Amino acid sequence: MREKSGNSEIALVTARLRDNRPDFIDIHSLEEGCLQSTSWQRKPGAVLFHPVKISSRLYTLFHTLLRPFVSRIRINDVVVSIGLPYRHYFFGKTFPYFTFGSKLRVLWTWDAWEPKLEKIAALAREARIDILLVSSLQSSELLRAKLQQVCEVHWLPEAVDVSEYRAKAWNDREIDVLSFGRSLPRYKDAIRGAKGLNCVLDKKFPTKEEFISALADSKISICFPKAVTDPDIAGRISTVTLRYLQSMAAKCLILGEAPAETQEMFGYDPIVPVDWRDPVGQLLHITSHPEEFASLIEKNFAEVTRNHKVSNFAARIDEHIQRKIQSSLV
Asked: Cα-Cα-Cα-Cα dihedral of 17, 23, 27, 32, to 10°?
């Protein structure tokens, strides 16, 4: 059975790229989760052979040359792409489905940082996107202003496959503090070498399984928005990224700073703010008094399980598609 919006078939264009970098693993996980929780069609995109920079540019050239001749040929009613907002990557990954015609073209993306918004808007115009979905509330507002009369722009936060993550009992967790991915040097320097704490800082995980195991073994997960850790890259965009949801799914207590959209996304603050007056003392207090934070950990787990799974994510994409189609019939 194929997913219908009215009488429209929905097709998800999936990536065919052999790359184990975290971003591409996350894309694959989202795509597979959407396909499992809906009856959307799978449309495998072009094979991005190595070197990827050459193959993606080659398919972009094919798209540019062929679109004037084939864009009136409709092969799908609704085509959806989930992925990064880079021109060559997008046209390479989705070829030829965004080259042919369709009733609706939908793109969901993250990595929509402020310095990149002009290029993302240009991509939406070139790809003739009808519905642009971005993971950041602030980015959606800024892009909506840039793309008036071009396409709809909506905020659609990231999602996590909760079933992938495990959670040990608090007293069975051997890592007191885990900092992964980008970090805030000021905080890292403040807690480095703290006595009585097992702090794992700036750890690189060769595989996703090792990362999942480390989260399951960690009591506290340090999370700061990229606008704080890398303002040159993020600009003013402060958004809830996947690391927050992963930490919630693994029942870690999140310590750090709440992104700007936190209240809109969760309806409460799931993050314990850093006590900059005594960062080490705060960590020692948390690890010695877990009962004070147990209800927040459980509330976070219940929230991510109820509202931020991949099935929720796919349903929200479908809602935007159905609403767009219905509005066109009025």
From this structure: 90
Q: Looking at the predicted structure, is the pLDDT value of residue 76 above 90? A: no
CA distance 142 to 68: 30
- Region of residue 83 (left: phi > 0; alpha: psi -120 to 50; beta: else): left
Measured on CA atoms in the order 87, 90, 94, 99, is the torsion positive or negative? negative
Count of Cβ atoms closer than 10 Å to residue 298 Cβ: 11
pLDDT, average across residues 176-197 = 93
Helix axes 22-37, 310-329, angle to 10 degrees: 60
pLDDT above 60 (res 93) = yes
CA angle 32, 208, 248 (to 5 degrees): 80
pTM tops 0.85, yes or no? yes
> 6: which 2 tokens?
């009215």
CA distance 191 to 194: 5
d(CA 118, CA 173): 44
Beta strands in the chain (DSSP E): 4-5, 8-16, 41-47, 74-82, 101-109, 131-134, 152-155, 175-180, 199-203, 218-223, 253-256, 272-273
What does the block give as tokens for 187?
């905080």
CB 134 within 8 A of CB 110: yes
DSSP 8-state symbol, 21: S
Distance CA 106, CA 117 (A): 17
Which residue, 306, 316, 305, 311, is CA-closest to 34? Answer: 311
Average pLDDT over residues 254-265: 98
- Residue range 46-71: average pLDDT? 93
Cβ distance 238 to 227 under 8 Å? yes
